[in-house]
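Support request from a user on the community tier.

User writes: "When I paste my structure tokens into the form, the page sometimes reloads and wipes my input. The last time it worked, I copied everything first. Here is what I submitted, just in case something in the input itself triggers the reload:"
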């Protein structure tokens, strides 16, 4: 079963995302939006056991989402997103394949 990585544990009810996999929070305490190195280290550890079939659930600060998604892409060459749909409190699944993009050397 895939894991749904949630950027930050907030007061939101994320239970509707459980249909996509087991929920796992990447952070549970506030992190300064300027502490990008700390975010990188925390997310690297959180995604250590991630697989290409797992998801990133978009929530919290934009910069946190960018760093987590970048790490997932670097590790797996793809990105599976869950985006909240306010109208019915559900999630839209989006998959992106980055495997054909070559990194700069």
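"...and here is what came back when it finally went through:"
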């Amino acid at each position: 079963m895939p894991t749904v990585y949630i950027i930050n544990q907030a007061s939101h009810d994320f239970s509707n995302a459980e249909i996509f996999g087991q929920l796992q929070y990447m952070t549970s305490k506030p992190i300064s939006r300027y502490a990008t190195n700390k975010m990188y280290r925390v997310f690297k550890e959180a995604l250590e056991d991630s697989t290409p079939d797992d998801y990133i659930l978009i929530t919290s600060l934009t910069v946190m989402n960018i760093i987590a998604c970048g790490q997932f892409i670097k590790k797996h060459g793809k990105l599976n997103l869950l985006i909240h749909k306010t109208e019915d409190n559900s999630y839209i699944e989006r998959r992106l394949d980055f495997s054909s993009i070559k990194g700069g050397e």
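Agent notes: The reload is a front-end session timeout and is unrelated to the input. The mean pLDDT is 94. The chain has one domain: 3-97. Escalated to web team.
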